[in-house]
Amino acid sequence: ATRRAINTGNILKMFENAGPYPVGTTTAPLVYGRASEVLTGPVLQIDYEKTFTFRLVQGDGTEFETKTVLEMLAGANRLLIGYTNKWEMIGFIEAAYDSDTKLVVVTGIVRGLRGTDYNAGQRVTGEYVLLYDDELESLLLDVNNVDRLDEVTIYIGMRDTGEVSQDDAIGIEEEGASRKPWRPYNVHAVASGGDLGITWHRRTRLNG
């Protein structure tokens, strides 16, 4: 059997009680794979020793590169991991691709980026792993600018003919989480006498 390429040529937005309609188009194939293991590890801090492995389904492996820590923190090397309503964005520093097994191993991982830390406990084996490149980001950002994010569903991978079928789609649902306050990180508490001092780092939606 032939494997149909999943393209982002038809990205559709669906509101409640309304039909889907295109919000952006591109002819670029979607680089994606399937998780070979459950992603674990701390959230919102770089785990330099942690590795995560997934099998590439579409793409040739050249899309995955090793970057510096600063480049990664500035927005390079992003993956979307999960499935409908359970997506988590991670960053990674190093990547290695085995062309024989089609396995991609990423190292130096920071989890829960862009406000997705609330989904960090939802990871399972076999879920989708999408390369979050500039082209995909530009399309999804257009959708995220709508006023009522909790009513938006994005379907990636519709047939090139424009025929609508949820069976052929990878769904990304947005439930308004990007409008919620992002939790702080590096929270520390120090007791001194009868006082308790608490410090933390705030986060902004600008680049997570």
Index terms:
208 residues; mainly beta; six-stranded antiparallel β-barrel; four-stranded antiparallel sheet; disordered N terminus
Summarize the structure in short.
This protein has helices at residues 69-73, 134-144; strands at residues 11-14, 21-24, 32-35, 47-58, 78-82, 88-98, 103-113, 128-131, 152-156, 170-174, 185-192, 195-201. It is mainly beta and 208 residues long. The strands form three sheets. The chain has a six-stranded antiparallel β-barrel.
Account of the protein in words:
The protein has 208 residues and is mostly beta strands. 8% of the residues lie in helices and 38% in strands. The chain has two helices and twelve strands. It has a six-stranded antiparallel beta barrel. The longest helix is centred in the C-terminal third of the chain and has 11 residues, at 134-144. It starts with 10 loop residues before the first strand and ends in a 7-residue tail after the last strand.
Largest sheet: 6 strands, antiparallel, barrel
What share of the residues lie within helices?
under 10%
Q: In terms of structural class, how would the helical and strand content be classed?
A: mainly beta
Rg on CA atoms, Å: 18 Å
> What is the CA–CA distance across the termini?
41 Å
The whole-number mean of residue pLDDT values reads 75
Q: State which percent range the strand residues make up.
A: 35-45%
Which residues form runs of ≥5 with pLDDT under 50? 1-6, 145-152, 158-164
By DSSP (H or I, 4+ residues per run), the number of helices equals 2
Shape descriptor reads elongated
Number of strands: 12
* H and E order: EEEEHEEEEHEEEE
Strand order of the largest sheet: 3-4-7-6-5-8
